[in-house]
Design a protein that fits this description.
Pfam families: Glyoxalase_6. This protein has about 230 residues and is an alpha+beta fold. The chain has 2 domains: about 1-175, 2,3-Dihydroxybiphenyl 1,2-Dioxygenase, domain 1; about 175-229, 2,3-Dihydroxybiphenyl 1,2-Dioxygenase, domain 1. It has 4 helices and 15 strands. It has helices at about 1-10, 65-75, 125-135, 190-200; strands at about 15-20, 20-25, 40, 55-60, 80, 90-95, 100-105, 115-125, 140-145, 150-155, 160-165, 180, 200, 215, 220-225. An 8-stranded mixed sheet has the order 5-6-7-4-8-11-10-9, with helices on one face. Strands 12-15-14-13 form a 4-stranded mixed sheet, covered by helices on one side. Strands 1-2-3 form a 3-stranded antiparallel sheet, covered by helices on one side. A hairpin with a 5-residue loop joins strand 6 and strand 7. The chain is globular and about 50 Å long. The mean pLDDT is about 95.
Length: about 230
């Protein structure tokens, strides 16, 4: 249900669907085009208990577009969410399983991102996150200060990755995480070792014997290093 909600929400297609996993990507997308990040929706046994530390911001082009998108998402099953945001120009919603996301007011920075303006991560220290993730990926660091850090593909296309300061402490496994895939011809083990040298740590989530490597960044946010294509 969540996979189909997001396919409709973004206007994307379901690339593949198997028991326990639904893969979403833009229609006509050819990986690894940096113009978009793909979404995998996985079945997990753990119930959602706290606000997600990772969410997406959806981009809009005008106040009318924002209002229309919010109404359409509610029709698809989204519900208003109160995460203590107060009086803000963006709208906070939750998908049918309670995963929070924002429908942003028109922002010039998101004018060419596609439907997902940014993947946003709660961060105790955005500067530290910028240091790690700027080295972890070949993306470009656009802005960093005490309150937020912003990265984007070096090709200058697609959504942003943003770290925004919060006082909330991470207490449970993130329900939303990033997957990193080395380039074709690169070595997965060598890439995982490079990330550990930058400050990543190994994480056991009960994943067992799987072809990917599960790590966590310096603030404990889990991510996976996949096998190269």
């Amino acid at each position: 249900m969540v996979g189909r909600f997001w396919a409709e929400a973004l206007g994307w297609g379901i690339d593949s669907e198997e028991p326990g996993v639904t893969n979403l990507e833009p229609v006509g997308f050819a990986y690894p085009d940096p113009a978009a990040i793909c979404i995998d929706v996985l079945t997990v046994p753990e119930p959602k208990t706290v606000k997600n530390r990772v969410h997406v911001d959806l981009a809009t082009t005008s106040a009318a577009h924002q209002a229309e998108l919010v109404a359409r998402l509610k029709d698809l099953g989204a519900t208003p969410a109160d995460v203590g945001q107060g009086d803000v120009p963006w709208t906070v919603l939750a998908d049918p399983e309670g995963n929070e996301f924002c429908v942003a007011e028109p922002r010039s920075i998101y004018h060419d991102t596609g439907p997902i303006g940014a993947v946003v991560v709660d961060s105790v220290d955005p500067r530290a996150m910028a240091r790690f993730w700027d080295e972890a990926m070949d993306w470009t660091l656009h802005e960093v200060n005490d309150d937020h850090a912003v990265l984007r593909s070096a090709k200058g296309v697609g959504p942003y990755l943003e770290f925004r300061r919060t006082s909330d402490v991470k207490t449970v496994k993130n329900r939303v995480h990033l997957d990193l895939r080395p380039y074709a011809g690169d070595d997965q083990a060598a890439e995982a070792a490079r990330l550990r040298a930058l400050g990543a740590t190994d994480v056991d989530l009960g994943q067992g014997d799987v072809p990917w490597t599960v790590l966590a960044d310096p603030e404990g946010n889990e991510f996976c290093v996949l096998t190269p294509l």
